[in-house]
Amino acid sequence: MSTENAMLEEFSQREYEHGFVTDIEADSIPAGLSEEVVRLISEKKGEPQWLLDWRLKAYRHWLTLEEPQWHNVNYSPIDYQAAVYYSAPKKKPQLASLDEVDPVLLETYEKLGIPLEEQKVLANVAVDAVFDSVSIVTTFRETLEKHGVIFCPFSEAVHDHPELVKKYLGTVVPHSDNFFASLNSAVFSDGSFCYIPKGVRCPMELSTYFRINAQNTGQFERTLIVAEEGSYVSYLEGCTAPKRDENQLHAAVVELVALDDAQIKYSTVQNWYPGDSEGKGGIYNFVTKRGACRGENSKISWTQVETGSAITWKYPSVILQGDNSVGEFYSVAVTANHQQADTGTKMIHIGKNTKSTIISKGISAGVGQNSYRGEVKVMKNATNARNFSQCDSMLIGDRCGAHTFPYIEVRNTTGKVEHEASTSKVGEDQIYYLRQRGLSTEDAVNMIVNGFCKEVYDVLPMEFAVEARKLLNVSLEGSVG
Amino acid sequence: MIATQSDAYQESFAAFQADQSATSPAWLNEARQTAWDRFLERGLPTRRDEDWRFTPVASLAGRNYRNVQSLSLASDTVETLLQRAKLDDDFHRLVFVNGHYVEGASSHQDLPEGVVVENLASSIREGRDLAEQLLTQPVGKEESAFTDLNTAFASDGAVIDVADGVTLDRPVHLIFLSVEDGPTACHPRNLIRLGNGSSATVVESYHGRDGDGYFTNAVTQIELAEQANLDHHKLQHEQRDSLHIASSHIDQKEHSRFCSHYFSFGAELARNELNCILDGEEIVSTLNGLYMPTGEQLMDCRTRIDHAKPNCNTYELYKGILDDRARGVFNGKIFVHQDAQKTDAKQSNQALLLSDDAVVNTKPQLEIYADDVKCTHGATIGELDEQALYYLRSRGIPESLARKMLIFAFANDVVQGVEVPAVVQHLEAILLSSHGLPDV
């Protein structure tokens, strides 16, 4: 046991692999939040009046809100006046080719293992890389344009497709939705906009890489994806962030709209800086993600692998409005060291014959605290609604915690809702068995944990599944012995 | 808002103090006053409290209830209610009317040696240590507005104290009746203590008379020493226009066994809380419950199990059958502390919806801080199984009867867990009568 403990120590003290700071001159506005700042952000981005009005409405509403306290995470109070709400790399390159990108940036991406060229060629992935708050590179635009797919930075969409943005912005996550969503609505800097026209199957996986860079800069991304009738899109979001001592606030909002027969698959791998082994630093990740299955037979699927952040607070949800619509949520959340996660989903059944599936796998190690919080609601008219939920937790070490808070509300007799939860640990017998067969303890644990998460990996796009597996192994390195 | 709701009790508390403080010992007056102050400060819970999110209690609890100081007895109502409440003439019986003990209707002779079965008022008068000990210590893990209200008005209730190694031969039946005119409140406080290796069976039942709506706010404190064994039953048959709030707080020591059976039929709003603290190894706790709201009834069942020590097993099964516009709330919390390795906790909650207007809110909740544990919970909500229904109908059973059979079978799971024949008979009769199972 003692060698195992030593290994455990070593594992939980693992340093963050992607911790480095890119030295780029940033154009930031002074710290603090006020109506002035909101106006300034809007002005800097050259936004139309209606968007500024919307931001101000959100800001004024945010002032009336209190920070939520119901979650099962602890953190020192956030000083919203100490954060910088806008920062853009100063040299915004005009890009004809990747060669013109600031070499420092390219190097950063390489360190992260996502060389753009390679991905461009090999993976056939269009990358809209968000570096701090302004988009710098967008590839494969032409291919997408040919299909009529719009995939561009949010700020560009505001100028080029105002009618679409105006029509859908805030319709899934209204400006008054919650504390963090209101804050985002007031100060969001950039993000991605994606529109798939009627009947189009998006020819490639769309993806963005988020990265938090300039010190003290909270990131407020806003993503909006609209899938028109009969269209399909798979969207990947992946994140890593450099090492920081101060806690950085991240409050993103993602809105998905699926019309008749449309399908959206949204996958996330989140590996932001989780803080050091003492629990110092790390990203505060307060995210509002929601999809609306507006049309009949539409489908929205969320898949997430959350291994980073000091605090993860996120509940990707699906509002099943259209008849026969389907919502899915697959999640792996890992909390090691002092990480805390309060994550889960909401499935709101409104239409008839709506179905939802929830598979959540929580893994706690070190002194990490992992909570699943979910809600399944079957409204009165949701005849024959069906839900299946499964929340499994795995504990590694005896100082961590795993918690589940499922809420179930049913208002229709034909609704069928099932919820299952279990908690277990990596069994000594399992490790013993694998070691007998020549595997190291570490490999044995990785194998067991990966097996535990298999149901979720299976639904991840292939390149993500590989990355996710790697991340998980690294995150849990040394947690067991 | 909060101030005015607490005001509703201000007058009765003043009257209660005037009536009681002269005859009560100093420690009790002090405990009442402390609880009262805390209650004033806290106020009644609102829907903003997470624990009361689905249970709007403020309007019912904020009414002007009158405390019944003395009783006009021997009314026919009492007799009728009592006849209905009695389960078995052999049981030891303590009867309380509007919160006050009624000697004449009670019977608890021939108790084994070392067993005290009496009412709380006499316990206090006699200066027994159990009363002082339990009334002055915090109720459960922490007080709530309603336990504070109960302590502030604590004057009577049942006391069962069983010495080491004694087995109480016959069940003790505690009967609580509310019969007065007008909106009245009573705050029964029950204390149960079982010594090392002793065992007992207790049945609590609550009944009332139609009227202007009354409020029962009961608190039961239970202490089980090593290897003690308690079978606890609660039958909630309050009148349809009443408010029933109750909480039981169980403190268990090593190798003890606690079994709770809760059956909820009455009240406009009924809330029952069970808080079990497993403070010893090798404890087994079983919590079973059945709630059957119809009409506009709201039934809220809450259980909290604290696994504080290793090697304990808990089993929990709660079932609900909801009809009309009824609402059901279930919250089952299992808390496994860091030391509680090898815990095995199973929880299951099933609800059957018979009407599209009925609503169920279920929140099973696991909080686990130990790594070598087995915890599972399952929750299902749905309607009757169409296939089973089809099977029965294909054998010539009319649909209405087939439905009734299936509902009976669903409920009977919980009833069959009861080991006292008289209670089983009573429950089966209710399930089979038109009062229990809805006519479908």
UniProtKB/TrEMBL annotation, chain A:
<dbReference type="GO" id="GO:0016226">
    <property type="term" value="P:iron-sulfur cluster assembly"/>
</dbReference>
<protein>
    <submittedName>
        <fullName>FeS cluster assembly protein SufB</fullName>
    </submittedName>
</protein>
<feature type="domain" description="SUF system FeS cluster assembly SufBD N-terminal">
    <location>
        <begin position="146"/>
        <end position="202"/>
    </location>
</feature>
<comment type="similarity">
    <text>Belongs to the iron-sulfur cluster assembly SufBD family.</text>
</comment>
<dbReference type="Pfam" id="PF19295">
    <property type="entry name" value="SufBD_N"/>
</dbReference>
<dbReference type="InterPro" id="IPR000825">
    <property type="entry name" value="SUF_FeS_clus_asmbl_SufBD_core"/>
</dbReference>
<dbReference type="Pfam" id="PF01458">
    <property type="entry name" value="SUFBD_core"/>
</dbReference>
<dbReference type="InterPro" id="IPR010231">
    <property type="entry name" value="SUF_FeS_clus_asmbl_SufB"/>
</dbReference>
<dbReference type="InterPro" id="IPR045595">
    <property type="entry name" value="SufBD_N"/>
</dbReference>
<feature type="domain" description="SUF system FeS cluster assembly SufBD core">
    <location>
        <begin position="210"/>
        <end position="452"/>
    </location>
</feature>
<dbReference type="InterPro" id="IPR037284">
    <property type="entry name" value="SUF_FeS_clus_asmbl_SufBD_sf"/>
</dbReference>
<dbReference type="InterPro" id="IPR055346">
    <property type="entry name" value="Fe-S_cluster_assembly_SufBD"/>
</dbReference>
From TrEMBL, chain B:
<dbReference type="InterPro" id="IPR045595">
    <property type="entry name" value="SufBD_N"/>
</dbReference>
<dbReference type="Pfam" id="PF19295">
    <property type="entry name" value="SufBD_N"/>
</dbReference>
<feature type="domain" description="SUF system FeS cluster assembly SufBD core">
    <location>
        <begin position="182"/>
        <end position="410"/>
    </location>
</feature>
<dbReference type="GO" id="GO:0016226">
    <property type="term" value="P:iron-sulfur cluster assembly"/>
</dbReference>
<dbReference type="InterPro" id="IPR000825">
    <property type="entry name" value="SUF_FeS_clus_asmbl_SufBD_core"/>
</dbReference>
<dbReference type="InterPro" id="IPR011542">
    <property type="entry name" value="SUF_FeS_clus_asmbl_SufD"/>
</dbReference>
<dbReference type="Pfam" id="PF01458">
    <property type="entry name" value="SUFBD_core"/>
</dbReference>
<dbReference type="InterPro" id="IPR055346">
    <property type="entry name" value="Fe-S_cluster_assembly_SufBD"/>
</dbReference>
<protein>
    <submittedName>
        <fullName>FeS cluster assembly protein SufD</fullName>
    </submittedName>
</protein>
<dbReference type="InterPro" id="IPR037284">
    <property type="entry name" value="SUF_FeS_clus_asmbl_SufBD_sf"/>
</dbReference>
<comment type="similarity">
    <text>Belongs to the iron-sulfur cluster assembly SufBD family.</text>
</comment>
<feature type="domain" description="SUF system FeS cluster assembly SufBD N-terminal">
    <location>
        <begin position="6"/>
        <end position="173"/>
    </location>
</feature>
